[in-house]
Every structure is written in C-alpha cells, then in structure tokens.
Specification:
This protein is of the alpha/beta class. It has helices at residues 2-15, 61-75, 95-104, 123-130, 186-202, 220-232, 245-252, 286-294, 309-322, 353-358, 364-376, 380-396, 410-419, and strands at 50-55, 79-83, 106-109, 135-141, 154-160, 164-174, 177-183, 207-212, 239-244, 265-266, 277-279, 282-284, 298-299, 304-307, 330-334, 339-343. Helix 12 (380-396) crosses helix 13.
Length: 422
Amino acid sequence: MARRTLPILRQLLRGSATSSPSESSPVLGLAVALKRSVTYMPRPGDGAPRPVTLIPGDGIGPLVTGAVEQIMEAMHAPVYFEKYEVHGDLTKVPEEVIDSIRKNKVCLKGGLATPVGGGVSSLNVQLRKELDLYASLVNCFNLPGLPTRHENVDIVVIRENTEGEYSGLEHEVVPGVVESLKVITKFCSERIAKYAFEYAYLNNRKKVTAVHKANIMKLADGLFLESCREVATKYPGIKYNEIIVDNCCMQLVSKPEQFDVMSVQLVESVRDRRVWAFNASGRFSVKEYLQVANSGGIAEFPRQLVTPNLYGNLVANTAAGIAGGTGVMPGGNVGADHAVFEQGASAGNVGNEKLVGQKKANPVALLLSSAMMLRHLQFPSFADRLETAVKRVILEGKYRTKDLGGVSTTQEVVDAVIAVLD
C-alpha cells in the first residue's frame, strides 16, 4: 500500500512546488512544499529494515544503549545496529564511524565523556560539526505519574549546533590572558530559524520564542535576532517573540506558588511558566494575569524556543529539570542528511562509577529518543508502541530508577517495558 502511494505523493509535491508555507493541499489537507529542511518529520515508510549506527559511549552509555537493543528486539522493530566502540578520550571520531553514519543516515548514541580543561575537544561537538547536524531538538514535557514541581510543561528547545561559543576558537594572547571567540553567521542563524518555524508549522505549534543576549552582545546576538525576525515574516500564522536568556531561565524556575492559579484555559500550552504572558495587545503583568485567570479567561503562553548554541544548552537543561530531570528527556541532533539521537539534555553525562557498578542507570531518555528515531525512520507504529510502554511503566510507578524516586535497576525497567509492550 505504501509503495503504491509514493508516486501520488511525488506528484502532489511537484504540483505544489510554488506553494507558500501557508497554502494547503486540497487533497492532503496540509501544506506541502518542494523542499523541506526539517529532517525529523514522520512520514509513511516502505517497511524495509533500516541500518542504524550505534555508539554505546562511556559510563552508563552501554547500559542504556543495551536497554534499547533489548526492547527493539522484543518489538521486532525493523532496524538493525552497526555497533562501534568510541570513547571520549580519543582525539577524534574514527573515520569508519563517520562513514557508517554517512551511509546509514541515522545514529543512536550514548554519552561520550568530555575532559574538563586541557587540549582535548569534545567528540560530541566534533560529531555535530563533521556531519553538519545544525539543529539540536529537545522536547521537555511532563510524564504522567511522575511528580514534578510544575505541571503542563511542554517545551521544545531548538538550538543552533555548529557555531557560537562552541566554535572552539580559543587562544592565549599573552600568559594569563585567554581569548575565546563567539562566531555568529547570518547563514547559520537563518538556517536554525527556518528549522524552528518549519518544526512549529509542521507540528501545529503556535509560537516561536527567540532566546538571546542582544542587550549586551549587540552585534552577534543582534544578527541572530535579525535573522529570526526576517524568517518570522514568512510564517504569518505563527506568533513570534523574544526573551533575554537570563530572564528566560529565571522564568523557567520561578517559585511554584506563582503558578497555583493556572486553571485557566491555555490556548498554547505552558512553555516557560513565565510570570507574565502575552495577549493581543502585548505583555501583561502578574496582577492582570491573575484577573484573567480568576475570571476564567484565556491566557496564551509560548511553547517553543529557538536559541544560539550555549543558551540552548543552558535552557534545555533548565527546562528538563522542571519537567522531571535529564533522565527522561529525549532529543536529537539533525541536519539536512543525517540525524543522531541521544539523551536530550546533558547528552555528555556518562554517570559515575557507582551508578555503572550498580547497573541502575535510567534508560527512559534514550528509549524515548529511540521512539523519535523510529518516527524519523518512518516507523510511527513502532514508535507509538515504545512510547506507550515507557509511559505506562512510569505511570504505574513500580519500576523506577533512583533519579525518579525508585530503587530499580536498568534491567528491571527494561523488563517492565517489554512486559507491557502491546
């Protein structure tokens, strides 16, 4: 059936080559265009098994990637892994690993340890640059049954992955004085902004918020904002606004009592739990918000962020913290041709020796990232099965690792997920 529909889809795409983002296909009921830069979008697949490059990594990496392998086998998922041993103390990612990812187009990886200080660069960053994985996508959301400080969190953080402070351009000017360059280009800024708006458009999200520090870094972050504003004009159906990065982080971790009145109907789900919100005329204050809430009115909250490299790292980890922790947040790094899926926040976290020895690493984040990978590979039904099983185990609460308030081992969580697979 899927093979027979491919010619029809190709014909529809050719016929809509001149369509704008806001135009809709009369047949499919959704907007299509000849070229879409978004890599992570589920589409109907042909069912053929797909090869995936697997990098277990360091520390807890082999534990959590092993959990994924077991569950994929139990589901009879149409993927098979090409495994490569890579460790963070290497000076560069081996060529055969890069070649494998280029061939397979998709990679699943555990964390790679990055030495602090010294002259060894991060292999995680190397991999992103080598494959031009320009967009980091982290979805921070509440899992049913997992108690957190805030409820109704649904935040997507889209982070530029290839430049900014992570450019790695540092040198010692004179002894005791080090200069580190932050590189921002219009090309990369426009590219990540387009990705963010395309993602919002294709996933029915209503607002994109640019995070910046242009009040201080007026040229660098100013260029980023200028690019975002230009792209925003091409998507009139998506609201756009901006927030300074320190204010964004503060709003993310605001005191819980500020949000006790959030029983109002949300047009756009809570993104950053900010003290203020936006209405048709602009920003309104806490007092005004309380009046709206108490009267049963409608308050709108943006829910998607687009950021330069460093800010995205900070914001994604902060958002993960309020939504249940880095151990449950999925994510991926995507480009025009390749995608690497890994734990969404603190992807370089490899745990500690005690956690590895006790075999109590939390596999949930990588399992959910694997569901993202399955959708990317055009296997949405397998992705749904995996997500549903993981969420059911979390909801039941019997098998949880220590970071989620339980005492279970990695294997016990894996066995529980396999037991409830539909």
